[in-house]
Amino acid sequence: MEKQEIYDVVIKNLPVGFSIVDLEGTIVDFNPIAEEITGYSREEVINKPHFEILHGTLDRDSCPLLKHALSLKEQAIAVETTIKKKNGEQITLSVTTAPLLDEDGGLSGAVELFRDISEAKQRERERKNILSMFAHDMKNPVTTAGGFLSRLLAGKAGALTEKQKSYLETIREELYKVSDLIADFLEFSRIGAKAYRPVPRPFNIRKNMNNAVEAAKIEADKKGITILFEVSEEMPPTILADPAMIDRVIANLLDNAITYTGKGGTIVVRLSDADNDILVSVTDTGRGIPEEHLPYIFDAFYRISRDTKGSGLGLFIAKTIIEAHGGRIWAESKRDKGSSFSFTLKQ
Ligand code: ADP
């Protein structure tokens, strides 16, 4: 079979939208799924600029390939973009763009592969809305119940027997767990909203980490876990980041390390500088994370087992925060040997 015939069969039957654009961004090929997704026929788009049809704008800079990748030549890039179909309907596309090179290695254009992900996006929005409504409605009763519980425990409604006290303390512990879940659900539902952006200012991360370690020692002591804090000498006095958000990440990593480490274990928290970044790591001697779970632990709602408290959102929120700061977060772990979570931030 001729190469051209194979190409035609593959492109015609490809289950995703397919388009080839030249160096000017003009469409030179468009397959049947691309016609179905956009509502435009092949004839209507051939020789027309692709920006509006695939990136939803007339701005050439909106195309990641033309903007960034022309100089890199081999990189494929995935973006999400909102477009208007021919009938005016607004849809969200996931577009993967890869450069096309000629025989001499020169750039001759690009392939764009795309899927309509509007339904998945809609489901995600609905899930966030339901969670947000649920968390808002739960928040007030939980706060009120906590308030009355504190009064009872303080003896404001009369003296309590030791047994009554111990039951009420257990109720309070459980209420804290519900309240943590609500806080996670609320934060998750805010992610993606315009207001959920870091507001960076210079702050002393060493001091904040020290406070976080001291606060974590209260819980750690109950399990006989030792927490050590090591800081490298070269650390700059301040970094530029959103202090509340970074505190949230550090508290979450410490909380996980305590939750997933057995009695008598050790947690080492390190702060060091690495080239132009600062590096934070939290290493524990806990149960570890089996290899097959490691790629998924930063996904929303992912939990390895249900035998501990938690929403499965902590690491997802941490990743969102660190990436919004331009940093990187990752985990290394061995089952039964312990885990190490690290993240970088620009200095
Ligand atoms: P959770 O609220 O369940 O702790 P996270 O998003 O913080 O949610 O973590 C996701 C999952 O990753 C946890 O349920 C746990 O199974 C695993 N995990 C996180 N940190 C550790 C750790 N330090 N040691 C072992 N497992 C961990």
Describe it:
By secondary structure, this protein is an alpha+beta fold. Strands 2-1-5-4-3 form a five-stranded antiparallel β-sheet. It has a five-stranded mixed β-sheet with strand order 7-9-10-12-11. The chain has a two-stranded antiparallel sheet with strand order 6-8. The protein binds adenosine-5'-diphosphate. The site of adenosine-5'-diphosphate has 21 residues, from α9 and α10. Adenosine-5'-diphosphate binds next to α9 and α10.
- Alpha-beta classification: alpha+beta
Radius of gyration based on Cα positions: 26 Å
Q: How would the global form be characterised? A: elongated
Strand order of the largest sheet: 2-1-5-4-3
The helix-strand sequence is HEEHHHHEEEHHEHEEHEEHEE
Number of strands: 12
Chart the SSEs and their pairings.
Elements: H1 3-13, E1 17-22, E2 27-30, H2 32-38, H3 42-45, H4 51-55, H5 64-69, E3 77-84, E4 90-101, E5 107-116, H6 118-153, H7 162-190, E6 201-203, H8 205-222, E7 226-231, E8 239-241, H9 243-259, E9 266-274, E10 277-284, H10 314-324, E11 329-334, E12 338-346
Parallel strand pairs: 7-9
Antiparallel strand pairs: 1-2, 1-5, 3-4, 4-5, 6-8, 9-10, 10-12, 11-12
Helix pairs in contact: 6-7, 8-9, 9-10
Short description:
The protein is α+β, with helices and mostly antiparallel strands and 347 residues long. It has 10 helices and 12 strands.
What are the salient characteristics of this protein?
347 residues, alpha+beta, 5-stranded antiparallel beta sheet, 5-stranded mixed beta sheet, 24% strand, binds adenosine-5'-diphosphate
